[in-house]
Amino acid sequence: MLYSPKWSKAKKHLKSLVCDTLRSRVDFQVINYRRAHDQLGRAVITIDKVEKLSMCTITAERAEHYKEWEIRAHFDNYDFDDVENNISIQDEAHQQLKKEGIYGQYDFFFTLEQYFNSSIEDSLQSTDILMKILCLLDRRVGKRTLLKMKDSILTEHELVQEFYKLRCEAEKLSITA
Fold first, then answer.
1. Residue 48: closest CA among 24, 29, 30
2. What tens-digit pLDDT sequence spans the chain (177 residues)?
3. What Pfam families does the annotation carry (predicted)?
4. Which of 55, 31, 173, 167 is nearest to 107 (CA)?
5. Contact 30, 43 (CB under 8 A)
6. Short-list 135, 59, 133, CA closest to 102
7. pTM score
8. Bridge-partner residues for 56, per DSSP?
9. Would you state the pLDDT for residue 1?
10. Which of 109, 121, 136, 175 has its CA 20 to 30 A from that of 128?
């Protein structure tokens, strides 16, 4: 599944939403593997040309497979004929991986679509790690909002905390207690 509309157009829109203090340092890349059966690859967020978040489809699908087996073993549920149950287990595995910060390229596109079609206020309320990262890079999130997040950010995933710290440093905000 290739991204539709064109990735170049979406990337331009995404870059236009990045705050001025980080615009030259942040980049988003989509790498598709033409010889892969589904032509999916990975999406990457880089800071100063260093990969901070790699959303590789192959890695995510492998992790999801193992997570499904963990769930099955935990519940001693190996009934592969129950389609509804299989879908439920797969969905649970996928949700657990997203909470761990493991994403596939398709997750990036899905979240990007939600991000583009939601208000920044709604996006900030999301529990999704990737959505929070996009919000922390967003120019519509001002210094006052960043300062208000100071305490709640401590309960977030380490990736979210890393991007929060990056944004605050770029904005020259003191966040130390």
1. 24
2. 455 568 899 999 999 999 999 999 999 999 887 766 566 789 999 999 999 999 999 899 999 999 999 999 998 888 888 899 999 999 999 999 999 999 999 999 999 999 999 999 999 999 999 999 999 999 999 999 999 999 999 999 999 999 999 999 999 998 765
3. SF0329
4. 55
5. yes
6. 59
7. 0.89
8. 42
9. 47
10. 175
Q: Give the separation between CA 103 and CA 63, rounded to whole angstroms.
A: 10
5 prior amide bond cis, ω within 30: yes
- Give residue 174's pLDDT: 84
Q: Within 13 Å and on the Cβ side, how many CA atoms surround 48?
A: 4
Q: Report how far residue 69's alpha carbon sits from residue 150's, in angstroms, rounded to the nearest whole number.
A: 38
Burial classification of residue 121, based on how many CB atoms lie within 10 Å of its CB (0-12 exposed, 13-18 middle, 19 or more buried):
exposed
CA 166 to chain centre: 16
Answer yes or no: are the C-beta atoms of 131 and 123 closer than 8 Å.
Answer: yes
CA distance 62 to 78: 19
Can you tell me the distance from the alpha carbon of 44 to that of 50, in angstroms, rounded to the nearest whole number?
Answer: 10
Query: Taking CA 41 as the corner, what is the angle to CA 133 and CA 28, rounded to the nearest 5 degrees?
Result: 35
